[in-house]
Write a structure and sequence with these properties.
The complex is a heterodimer of chains A (about 500) and B (about 400). By secondary structure, chain A is an all-alpha fold. Chain A is about 70% helix and about 0% strand. With about 400 residues, chain B is mainly alpha-helical. Helices cover about 60% and strands about 0% of the residues of chain B. The chains are: A mainly alpha (about 500), B mainly alpha (about 400). Chains A and B meet through helix 1 and helix 4 of A and helix 15 of B. Chain B: Pathway: Protein modification; protein glycosylation. Chain B: Its main location: endoplasmic reticulum.
Chain lengths: ~500, ~400
């Protein structure tokens, strides 16, 4: 069948899945007094529409920052303002100042779900389609399969259209940034990424790879000539993008400081709730929060984060390649997720989307990672009542990936991009012959473990003495998986072009 | 709930044949593990999360029979060109067209009915007839009739085909009927099957003396010429014409306003209605119209049987004719024509063209079944999905 009809069917399928998940429950449904993220978004519409810009981020009598105060950068606020404007046309009660707190109704839910749906349709989905069409050295079938698998990734669908958030906007903008960079349109790419950054500050996880890649490009062009020109142009673009987004707040230093204080709540502590990163998992054994002071915690987490991503970034600056850039996005975001401060479980999406970008290069590992990332958010999804959606979308995703990429046949060292690494290890280890089988067994074991734990979390009551047993087990197991993936991705990057360049010379 | 047929405990009392009643009885035994309260007769309009979950899962579970039937049908189909790519194989396209049929999806899984496994039975009987396992095919169809009597729409096709190709075992050299090859054995076997199945289903009610009541529930002629939501058939046009003429007549003062009945035909209530300008339509009239319209296809099947393909064509035509001229037809009945036509569409380009036209329009006519705002994007997206797929895949098959 033709490319366009296949892609149309893929998009329609993706949209259908998104809308059917939308019919389910959302975060904080029917749970006064605080409700959840859904109420937060509605509240932001209320605040941005009714109050002047100067008051959006400040604690005033009209704007109680303790009740879901704005803690995303200005672009989110502008987006909420636009949604509020439309809401006002349909039903002003939805955003009436103070009186609309905790407003829940079927038409309102339809409206909110539509805003997410439209945002997804306008930003994220076109980015994915254009990205898949632009993949080089892949058949049409592989391009469409990649698009289908990326669009059916359960994590993003469940969080955006189920729990209720607008991650698809920031992730989509970052994806546009990657796309522009792959066509060597560096200025547009930088601008797109700055917009992404100004939508959600968590995109900072991706900032280092962007920075190192562009810097590496400038170095390659020679710092005395074209490179310097490029560097200044990019710097200019960044400054202009930021200025445009922050324009209303630039009148007053206090405004900027307050916004920054809301965006980076340093006094909140090392971690909150159960999240699949190192600090939460370590706290099972040692109560870190009690041993180390908050200042030291901050310094320790920053040190570890930067130490773990330093090798990749240096490699990217010295040898900037598009492939290295995509892998670096994954490993840097993963390092930040595992070691950084105040990480939410939803931040794993910042790692998942770059993994989606390399799904056609390492389908097996990518599918494995994406399954684990969805599993790591299980406690959150259970709280929102999205168990059925989770089960169905995850199973569908696994089947589609298994069918499109025949992942179970591609588990050799070469398929996992570990050939250069295995060549340098051949002298020391001799178990590489049964490597595919071992990897397959590990995968099946992992999937079975995740399945069993999902079932138990949903159906069984935890024992009295350990009420958090299941969420904690989910976090710890996911964390172990993520650590292994971190090692894997770093190995692939660091052992990469040295050998491939020499291989090309030989062939 | 199992209620006595003659008491009117609710507006939704049993109006399907006995086998379906036994099916619901079996379901109720499983239902009590989900939520016992849904089985209490007085609990009308009872919903709970467990009830909904159980109902939905029961439809999904019974669809297994449909999946099996589709597999059997795919085995009967052999495309002219063997394509290397799985996506372009006729069997794959047929499987998708049947399993992802938009009409079946929304009627069964959203609107809520159990058509999946019933169509599974029908497709299975068609597959058996294609594989020349006539007795099995006849048995399956007889059982199907006692599950849902709407399949009587296609009974003439089955009857004539079995008579012509099974009871008369051979043809003359020029393809015409060889009267001498009449096989008494085959006729008796067929008759035995039909009687046995009917006895099994209606027997208990005949013994209890309730047969007239059952018949009146199955064929509610008091329900009126058209269903609450008009099926897009000939009588809809007839009614529309009647209404138009009424308005025209009132405007030109040909008619007396006091003599015109006030009740509306398009309302949600099912009730009898009289035509004002055009002659009234009785059940007998619709039967005669239906009979006349199926005559050409039945004649073709009798005089020039072309094997299974001819049978399928006659089946589709019978379904369409009954849909067009039948009494109190539901719009869901269009699926009876669409699903069998899928089998023909992957084999010949001409049939594919007709199929695309019928299926797109037929599915669009099912839109009023889903009327709540949340379902609007779903029906549009699913419709687009199916239409785009059917057009592009059949196009690529017969390029």
């Amino acid at each position: 069948m033709e490319k366009w009809s296949l892609m149309t069917i893929t998009v329609l399928l993706a949209l259908t899945v998104r809308w059917t998940v939308s019919l389910g429950s959302y975060s904080g449904a029917g749970k006064p007094p605080m409700y959840g993220d859904y109420e937060a978004q509605r509240h932001w519409q209320e605040v941005t529409y009714n109050l002047p810009i100067r008051q959006w981020y400040f604690n005033t009598s009209d704007n109680n920052l303790l009740y879901w105060g704005l803690d995303y950068p200005p672009l989110t606020a502008y987006h909420s303002f636009v949604c509020a404007y439309i809401a006002k046309l349909i039903n002003p009660d939805w955003i009436a100042l103070h009186t609309s707190r905790g407003y829940e109704s079927q038409p309102h839910k339809l409206f909110m779900r539509t805003t997410v749906f439209v945002a997804d349709l306008l930003v994220y989905i076109p980015a994915v389609i254009v990205y898949c069409f632009s993949l080089k050295e892949t058949s049409t079938k592989k391009k469409v399969s990649s698009a289908l698998c990326i669009l059916l990734y359960p994590g993003l669908i469940l969080i955006d259209h189920g729990h209720f958030q607008y991650n698809s906007v920031s992730l989509g903008l970052a994806l546009w940034g990657v796309l522009y960079l792959s066509y060597d349109w560096d200025l547009l790419g930088s601008a797109a990424f700055c917009l992404a950054l100004n939508y959600k500050q968590m995109e900072l996880y991706h900032s280092l790879p962007f920075f190192c890649y562009l810097l590496g490009k400038c170095f390659k062009k020679g710092l005395k000539g074209k490179g310097l020109v490029l560097l200044t142009k990019i710097a200019g673009t960044v400054v202009v993008s930021f200025a445009v987004c922050w324009l209303p707040f630039c009148t007053d230093m206090e405004q900027i400081m307050q916004v920054l204080r809301r965006l980076f709540p340093i006094d909140r502590g090392l971690f909150e709730d159960k999240v699949a990163n190192i600090w939460c998992s370590l706290s099972v054994l040692i109560k870190i929060k009690n041993i180390i002071s908050p200042q030291t915690q901050l310094k320790l987490s920053f040190a570890l984060t930067f130490l773990s991503l330093l090798p990749t970034c240096i490699k990217l600056t010295v040898q900037p390649s598009l492939r290295g850039f995509k892998f670096a996005l994954v490993s840097c975001a993963l390092s930040f997720f595992l070691f950084s401060f105040q990480v939410h479980e939803k931040s794993i999406l910042l790692v998942s989307i770059p993994v989606c970008l390399i799904i056609n290069e390492i389908p097996f590992m990518a599918t494995w990672f994406l399954l684990v990332s969805t599993f790591s958010m299980l406690p959150l999804l259970l709280k929102d009542g999205l168990l059925l959606a989770y089960a169905v979308t995850t199973l569908a995703f696994l089947s589609v990936c298994a069918a499109s990429f025949s992942i179970f046949e591609k588990t050799s060292a070469e398929d996992l991009q570990l050939k250069p690494f295995s060549l340098s290890l051949k002298g020391y280890v001799s178990w590489f012959k049964s490597f595919p089988k071992i990897v397959r067994c590990l995968f099946l074991l992992s999937v079975t473990l995740m399945g069993v734990l999902s079932l138990m979390s949903a159906a069984v009551h935890p024992p009295q003495r350990l009420p958090d047993l299941f969420p904690l087990s989910v976090s710890v197991i996911s964390c172990l998986h993520f650590l292994l993936f971190l090692v894997y991705f770093n190995v692939v990057i660091l052992w990469d072009s040295k050998n491939s360049r020499s291989q090309r010379k030989i062939s | 709930e199992v209620s006595h047929p003659s008491t009117s405990t609710s507006e939704w009392t049993l109006d399907y044949p006995p086998f379906f009643a036994w099916f619901e009885c079996a379901l109720s035994h499983v239902a009590k593990y989900f939520d016992p309260k849904m089985l209490v007769i007085e609990n009308l309009n009872y919903t709970s999360r467990a009830t909904i979950l159980f109902q939905r899962f029961s439809v999904i579970f019974t669809d297994i029979l449909f999946v099996y039937a589709v597999r059997e049908c795919c085995r009967c189909v052999n495309g002219k060109r063997a394509a290397k790519d799985v996506l372009e194989k006729p069997t794959f396209i047929l499987a998708v067209l049947l399993l992802w049929n938009f009409g079946l999806l929304i009627v069964d899984h959203i609107h809520f009915q159990y058509n999946g496994f019933l169509f599974g039975l029908m497709l299975l009987s068609v597959a058996r007839l294609c594989q020349k396992r006539y007795l099995e095919g006849a048995l399956l169809f007889a059982v199907l009739l006692h599950f849902k009597h709407i399949y009587i729409y296609v009974a003439p096709a089955y009857g004539i085909y079995l008579l012509r190709s099974y009871c008369f075992t051979a043809n003359n050299a020029d393809g015409s009927l060889k009267w001498r090859s009449f096989s008494m054995l085959h006729v008796t076997l067929l008759g035995l099957i039909v009687c046995l199945v009917s006895a099994l289903s209606l027997g208990p009610f005949i013994v209890l003396g309730q047969l007239p009541q059952v018949i009146s529930r199955l064929f509610p002629f008091k329900r009126g010429l058209c269903h609450a939501y008009w099926a897009p058939n000939f009588w809809a046009l007839y009614n529309a014409m009647d209404k138009a003429l009424t308005i025209f007549g009132l405007k030109c003062n040909f008619l007396d306003p006091t003599k015109i009945p006030k009740a509306s035909m398009t309302g949600g209530l099912v009730q009898e209605f009289q035509h004002t300008v055009l002659p009234g339509v009785t059940p007998l009239a619709t039967l005669i119209c239906t009979f006349i319209s199926i005559l050409p296809s039945v004649f073709c099947l009798w005089f020039k049987p072309q094997g299974p393909r001819g049978f399928l064509q006659c089946l589709v035509l019978c379904a369409l004719s009954s849909f067009m001229f039948g009494w109190h037809v539901h719009e869901k009945a269009i699926l009876l024509a669409i699903l069998p036509l899928s089998l023909l569409s992957v084999q010949r380009a001409k049939d594919a063209g007709i199929y695309l036209l019928l299926t797109t329009i037929g599915h669009f006519s099912l839109f009023p079944l889903l009327f709540t705002p949340p379902e609007l994007p779903i029906k549009i997206l699913l419709m687009l999905l199916f239409t785009v797929y059917s057009f592009s895949s059949l196009n690529s098959l017969f390029r």
